[in-house]
Amino acid sequence: MYCPKCRVEYREDFTECADCRVSLLPGAPPGKAPQHFDPNLDLVVILETNNRIQLALATGLLEDAEIPYYVLGQIATLVTDVDPFLKKWVRLQVPRDQEAEARELLDPVLNPVEPPQIVEP
Ligand SMILES: [Zn+2]
Questions:
Q1: CA of 61 to the centre of ligand 1 (A)
Q2: Are 103 and 93 contacting, i.e. CB atoms less than 8 angstroms apart?
Q3: Both 18 and 69 in a single domain?
Q4: pLDDT tens digits, one per residue of 54-106
């Protein structure tokens, strides 16, 4: 069990974080594979991209700033053969209370002077 807010881990017999007063989620705190998140957590999409480099830059910056983030929409497996690039859209989400900080941080990624492009053959 862990707290979705402060990410402290709890034993199985706990149901609520003593500090944040929010319901604990089962499993380990999100870290390397942040698929588990509290659906009640107020998340905002700050980046929607099919550019893996852009995503890697963005998540790297968020990690450095210790802003929790969630990557959604990796639905590419079924269509990989058909369209290996264009279907790999992912959504990067952060908690709403850290949206402004995240957007400022990611500004060079979100609004590059020369946007990264996939050159069509
Ligand atoms: Zn907590």
A1: 23
A2: no
A3: no
A4: 888 999 999 999 998 888 765 444 444 555 555 567 888 899 989 999 999 99
Distance of alpha carbon 59 from alpha carbon 53, whole angstroms: 10
Task: Give the Å distance between the CA of 59 and the centre of ligand 1.
Answer: 22
Domain total of the chain: 2
93 CA distance to ligand 1 centroid (A)? 19
Cα of 101 to ligand 1 centre, how many Å? Answer: 21
> Which CATH number goes with the domain that contains 81?
3.30.70
Assess whether 20 and 54 both reside in one domain.
no
User: From CA 82, how far away is CA 71, in angstroms rounded?
Assistant: 23
68 C-alpha to center of ligand 1: Å? Answer: 13
Contact in structure between 8 and 2 (CB atoms under 8 Å) = yes
Are both 74 and 96 inside the same structural domain?
A: yes
Distance CA 82, CA 68 (A): 33
Tell me the two tokens of residue 62: 């968020």
| pTM, full prediction | 0.51
